[in-house]
Amino acid sequence: MNRFQGKTAIVTGGAGTNIGGAITRRLADEGACVGILDLDADAGRTIESEVIESGGEAMFYRADLTDAMSTEAAIESVVNTYGEVDILVNNVGLALGTTLEAIDEETLYRDFEINFKSAFLATKISLPFLQESEGNVIFISSVNALLGGFSEVTYSSAKAGLHSLCRGLTADYGPDGVRFNVIAAGSVIGDSEVWRERERNDPGLIERIEELYPLQRHGLPEDIADATAFLASEEAAWISGVVLPVDGGISATGGLSGRDWWNGL
């Protein structure tokens, strides 16, 4: 399919080895010119080369997405290169992972900068271009924003803020033809050093995670990329203000353990 032929997409955190990279590849595979915004220059240039070598169009722009000037400069560079912005995917995210009593102000502010402020800035700066193109914005959130999560209170709170932001923007800018949606992702495990390290430190971790999900597997980066491509496409032209769980069904169980555990009560 070439659903995004002639369209320009921006993917923040688009150089990641997990969700971000999968979204970048998927949109490029379907014809979009992709502006990859990321702080990691080596990873950014690598995925830019991969997309181009596979016949797609992409350009990497190094940016600190928590900084307004850096974000604005990168988005303006995308527009100067491709002429427009049709799709914005706010994918930047990081769970710093600590409990309330251990959180200091620096950790609090950093969690909100990474998980909320980055999306707020990119959306605000891109808005005039999205109004012109009648484009759409997708926020990558987490089921933690729906269910909560152990030792991730600031991360869950920041991601939940994206849900309210999405709904408010839908009300304000829907009349301009701009759509806003959220994907609440479950546990997505890709080929990343982070997950390899976690499994080395805790053998069996992934199997235990999978047991929590009704569909009995963890998510793949491509699962989130598929949902992103759908929401960005004309097939979703009358969908806006939605929080879509892409989570193997875990939000339907309230995060409780699997069927065998439940039946044993």
Automatic annotation (TrEMBL):
<dbReference type="GO" id="GO:0016491">
    <property type="term" value="F:oxidoreductase activity"/>
</dbReference>
<dbReference type="InterPro" id="IPR002347">
    <property type="entry name" value="SDR_fam"/>
</dbReference>
<comment type="similarity">
    <text>Belongs to the short-chain dehydrogenases/reductases (SDR) family.</text>
</comment>
<protein>
    <submittedName>
        <fullName>Meso-butanediol dehydrogenase / (S,S)-butanediol dehydrogenase / diacetyl reductase</fullName>
    </submittedName>
</protein>
<dbReference type="InterPro" id="IPR036291">
    <property type="entry name" value="NAD(P)-bd_dom_sf"/>
</dbReference>
<dbReference type="Pfam" id="PF13561">
    <property type="entry name" value="adh_short_C2"/>
</dbReference>
<keyword id="KW-0560">Oxidoreductase</keyword>
